[in-house]
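Fill-in record for Haloacid dehalogenase.
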Amino acid sequence: MPPLGDRRTYLPRVVAPRWVVFADFDETYLAHDGSPERRRDRRSLEQLLLEEASALGLVFGWVADGPIDVVAATVGTHGLRVVPHFIASSWGAELDFFSREEGRRPVAEWDARVAQSGFSRARVAAALDDLLRRGIPLVRREQAGRRIDSYMFQPSGRGRSPEIPSTLHKVAERHGIGVHVYPCHPALGEPEGTYDVDFVPRGVGKRQVVDFVLDRLGIPRARAMSFGDDVGDVDMLSAVEHGYLVDNATDDARRRFSRTAGASYARGILDVIERRIERIRL
């Protein structure tokens, strides 16, 4: 069964892509507070995509930190009905395209590229032991996937330790794996002052998946938009000409990237796309 289930509405097939939109999933496309206003905004965005994507040549996808199974569970919890053209999950380590005709279609070329990195649980375990010897114990999170292993780190004392991310990156590199380290997200109920630590294959990140999708579809950066809300999205926003933080972005993200959408969550995405569509129609 497709990971998002069968009873979904798929976006129309885009025969001649002219634009690509990359949207971070949690707290960018999807507002976890589930308020009526946020749901209305998301439905408005979905309606625009259903009605306009094919005519405008607009390919739309989610870029998620967590594995596809966690994305699918969140989709079910929040009752999302519309499936995007593609989902890059596990920080882009997994890439799937979706259509009504073919369902879920993993991208073989991307899978082969990621597989060459040699990612394995044994390498992650060796890195964890190495970190423990350095006084950096990690606590496992319940969202491990085929190509991601997720943990949390709580620094001792008050505040975050600026040297911790650097140490984590050095240890991961030593053991032949990649790692994404970023402050936990308060809007997702995560504790203040802690770090999310995601081990992934080397060379995998949101920027890399943007580069790959644009090359695969033959779309220039000038015809690409991206949206995010935290520091883990900044590379993705910088990878395209039209990158935006939604207005509910974290303070850490705002310190690193200045352009904002002018509205929060799906409303911010919708407003920017509509402005671009109006320019196309002129």
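KEY FINDING: The longest helix spans residues 36-56.
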